[in-house]
Amino acid sequence: LTPNLQGTVPPDHKTSVPRPRRQPQPYPPVSSERERSRYVAVFQDQYGEFLELQQEVGSTQAKLQQLEALMSSLPPPQSQEAQVAARVWREFEKKWKDPGFLDKQLRCLYLKAKLRHLKTQIQKFDDQEDSEGSVYF
């Protein structure tokens, strides 16, 4: 991807690089209080990491999107400014494609899916327990 020297974002510019997503490890439906407790412990253990990653990734994405918007609004560069603009675009793209950032982004997505799945399994178990323990007259 080459920088657009007219001061606008290229139409084919993508701000994120697609990477394969790891699926959460399977957690079958909860079948006992002991298993429920284990799921809750896993959820609580990884929820803090997820929140921290989500905040960091979101903050970085917001800053990069602001920079992209700013760069798009700049007037067409002149000769020496074109070199500076090209260098800025290279740095900008490097930040979006940074393996460390992409790994954090992937980990955040993985944890989000895993935690959502655990929460669903726990809620299904709780709903089942509630319905089985109810007495209808």
From TrEMBL:
InterPro entries (alphabetical): ELL/occludin, Occludin_ELL
Domain of life of the source: Eukaryota
Gene Ontology biological-process annotations: bicellular tight junction assembly
Regions annotated as coiled coil: none
SUPFAM superfamilies: occludin/ELL-like (SSF144292)
GO cellular component: apical plasma membrane; bicellular tight junction; cytoplasmic vesicle
Domain OCEL stretches: 21-130
Family, as annotated: Belongs to the ELL/occludin family.
Disordered: annotated span: 1-35
PANTHER family associated with the record: OCCLUDIN AND RNA POLYMERASE II ELONGATION FACTOR ELL, OCCLUDIN_ELL DOMAIN-CONTAINING PROTEIN 1
Protein name: OCEL domain-containing protein
